[in-house]
Write a structure and sequence with these properties.
Layout (H helix, E strand, L loop, with lengths): L7 E5 L6 E10 L8 E5 L5 E4 L5 E4 L3 H7 L3 E3 L4 E3 L13 H12 L4 H8 L3 H9 L6 H11 L3 H5 L16 E5 L2 H8 L2 E9 L5 E11 L2 E6 L12 E10 L4 E13 L3 H10 L12 E5 L3 E9 L6
Antiparallel strand pairs: 1-2, 1-5, 2-3, 3-4, 6-7, 8-15, 9-10, 9-12, 10-11, 11-14, 12-13, 13-14, 13-15
Helix pairs in contact: 2-4, 3-4, 3-5
Length: 309
C-alpha cells in the first residue's frame, strides 16, 4: 500500500464492503508512501497514527496532483527511493485556497510549523496545500480557518464579491488615532489604494490603483486618458485600509498632498524597474503619477484595552 498527502483512507466492512470510516491522509512517515499514516478522520475530526489493516484501501483523490508534487526519485537498481536532497524539478503551482492560506499565514507572521500545530496537521501537508492545487476536506478547512483566525468562506474566496465589514461590531470597541510613524508603517511599500480626484467634467471620483512608496512619495502607473490621470497637478487624497472580518477590526490611512506626473526619464526607468507589481487593470499604463503627502493621518478600530483595577 502506498499513498500521497491528501489521499483518502477508506476502511470497509469485511462482510458487506460498505464504508465504515474514512479520513484524509495528512502525514507520511516514509518517503515511499508506505504505512503508517497520520489520518484525519471525518467522523471524529481527530488525527491519529494508523497502520492500515486488510480492510483498508487508498482512494487517490489527488493522484495526479500528488504525482506532480512528488520529489525527484533516484534509481538504485531494484528499489526506487526518494531523494530528500534534490529540489523539486517543477515550480510550485498553488491553487486558490493554498494562496489564501499562505497569504493569511504570512500576514500574521506565522511559520508553517506554527500554523500546522494550531490546525493539528502535518507541516508537510500544509506545504502541499500551499504549493500545489488541492481540494481539502471541510474539516481541514475548519481547522485552518480556526488556526488563522478567519473563516472557511474567506479561505474559499466566498466573500470576494461582497464589501468588507459585514461582520458584527465588537462588543467593546475602541477607535483611536494613529501616529505618523504608524501611518507610514501601514502605508508600507506597495499595495492597492484609492485616489480621490475631480474628473475633467467636474465630477468627483474615487479610483483604486496599484501603488508603491518610493522616497516617501506614493507613486502609481496609469494611462494618460484614464480617470486616475486626472490626479496630476492637483491636490488629491489617497486612502489605504484593511478590514479583518474575522476579528471585526481594522485600520485606515489617509494621505493628502499635491500630485504630479513623473517626467524625468531616469526616474521613470527606475520606478518601472523597481515596481513590485504591474497594474491589475492591464493595458498600456506607462504614465507615472507621484503624490507627496503634506498630511498623513489614520485611525484604527479594535478591542478596547481593559482597565486594571
Amino acid at each position: 500500500m502506498r499513498a500521497h498527502l491528501g489521499d483518502q483512507l477508506i476502511v470497509e466492512s469485511p462482510a458487506t464492503g460498505a464504508t465504515r470510516r474514512d479520513g484524509e491522509i495528512v502525514g507520511l512517515h516514509h518517503a515511499d508512501g508506505t504505512p503508517p499514516y497520520d489520518v484525519h478522520w471525518s467522523d471524529t475530526d481527530e488525527v491519529t497514527l494508523v497502520f492500515p489493516g486488510p480492510d483498508a484501501h487508498i482512494r487517490p483523490l489527488h493522484h495526479e496532483r500528488a504525482a506532480a508534487a512528488r520529489e525527484p526519485r533516484q534509481d538504485t537498481g531494484d528499489v526506487t527511493t526518494v531523494s530528500r536532497a534534490a529540489p523539486p524539478q517543477e515550480a510550485a503551482n498553488p491553487g486558490d485556497i493554498g494562496r489564501r492560506v499562505a497569504l493569511e499565514r504570512r500576514r500574521q507572521g506565522l511559520s508553517r510549523e506554527e500554523t500546522a500545530g494550531r490546525a493539528r496537521m502535518s507541516p508537510d501537508y500544509l506545504a502541499y496545500l500551499e504549493e500545489r492545487p488541492a481540494d481539502p476536506t471541510l474539516a481541514t478547512l475548519v481547522r485552518l480557518a480556526d488556526a488563522l483566525g478567519t473563516t472557511v468562506a474567506a479561505l474559499r474566496g466566498g466573500g470576494i464579491d461582497l464589501p468588507p465589514g459585514q461582520g458584527y461590531a465588537l462588543l467593546h470597541a475602541e477607535l483611536r488615532d494613529l501616529t505618523p510613524a504608524e501611518c507610514h508603517m501601514l502605508l508600507s511599500t506597495h499595495g492597492v489604494g484609492r485616489v480621490s480626484v475631480s474628473t475633467p467634467d467636474g465630477r468627483p471620483a474615487v479610483v483604486p490603483v496599484n501603488y508603491d512608496v518610493v522616497d516617501d512619495a506614493i507613486v502609481f502607473r496609469t494611462a494618460p486618458e484614464s480617470v486616475a490621470a486626472a490626479a496630476a497637478e492637483r491636490e488629491v487624497a489617497f486612502e489605504v485600509d484593511h478590514v479583518d472580518e474575522a476579528l471585526s477590526q481594522g485600520w485606515s490611512v489617509l494621505a493628502v498632498g499635491p500630485a504630479s506626473v513623473v517626467t524625468d526619464p531616469d526616474t521613470v526607468r527606475r520606478l518601472t524597474r523597481q515596481a513590485h507589481t504591474t497594474p491589475w487593470a492591464g493595458g498600456g499604463r506607462e504614465m507615472w503619477v507621484s503624490i507627496r503627502p503634506t498630511s498623513l493621518t489614520g485611525r484604527r478600530i479594535g478591542p478596547a484595552e481593559r482597565q486594571t483595577p
